[in-house]
Amino acid sequence: MKYTFTAVTLAGFAMAAGAQDFSLSIVAAGDPFSGTTMTLDVISDASAGTHMLGGGFALSIFENNSLINNITWQAASWSQFNTDDGYDAGSGDYNQVIFGQLVIPGVPPFDVPAPGSEIGGLIGSFVVELDRELNLFDQISFEFVAGSPFTLQVIDINTGESFESSQGNLALNGLYINIPAPSSLALLGLGGFAVGRRRR
């Protein structure tokens, strides 16, 4: 089945010149249309630090949230302190989740971050249970809602310094899933054929 993914980005503004950049991104794990369950991984990124300390965020679902039966959150194995406010089927949103670990520089054994908590790694996954398999014309949009007091906090294990997204630029990269109409696919195919004919 043909489908398209589009990143949906909401960006915050820096509070000071030279502030660090932070981001969260939703990535579909595997083929989200292989059944009635899809897994959406949440990945971190930051321009400062070496490892994730923690944070929090919520998830809003637009476009056909009535197709969703349930959503569950699975924190990554490195995260030791987790709060999960759960899925609200009435609003179609997933309430805030909090994740984190304790790292105290210079105080063994707490001075070593857990494996897998490196920046750019997995924070956790949303497992979405659908009412049915997605069909042509179906569209679903998953967008982050920033957490409070910060969405992502990181630490540099070399210097012991920590950084928070509330003090820098924050990009929240959601996911828009769209299954185009067969006529759109046909037009794309004809367009490719026309371009191929022109080059000959």
Choose one word for the global shape: elongated
Query: How large, in whole angstroms, is the Cα Rg?
Result: 20 Å
What is the N-to-C order of secondary-structure elements (H for helix, E for strand)? EEEEEEEEEEEEEH
Q: Can you tell me the CATH topology?
A: Immunoglobulin-like
Q: How many helices?
A: 1
What is the CATH architecture annotation? Sandwich
Give the count of structural domains: 1
CATH hierarchy, class: Mainly Beta
Number of strands: 13
Main sheet makeup: 13 strands, mixed
What's the overall average pLDDT, rounded? Answer: 83
Helix share, percent: under 10%
Uncertain residue segments: 1-5, 9-17, 183-200
**Proportion of β residues?**
over 45%
Secondary structural class: mainly beta
Topology readout:
Layout (H helix, E strand, L loop, with lengths): L3 E8 L9 E9 L7 E10 L4 E12 L5 E8 L7 E2 L2 E2 L4 E8 L21 E9 L8 E8 L6 E3 L6 E3 L4 E10 L3 H18 L1
Parallel strand pairs: 2-13
Antiparallel strand pairs: 1-13, 2-3, 3-9, 4-8, 4-10, 4-11, 5-9, 6-8, 7-8, 10-13, 11-12
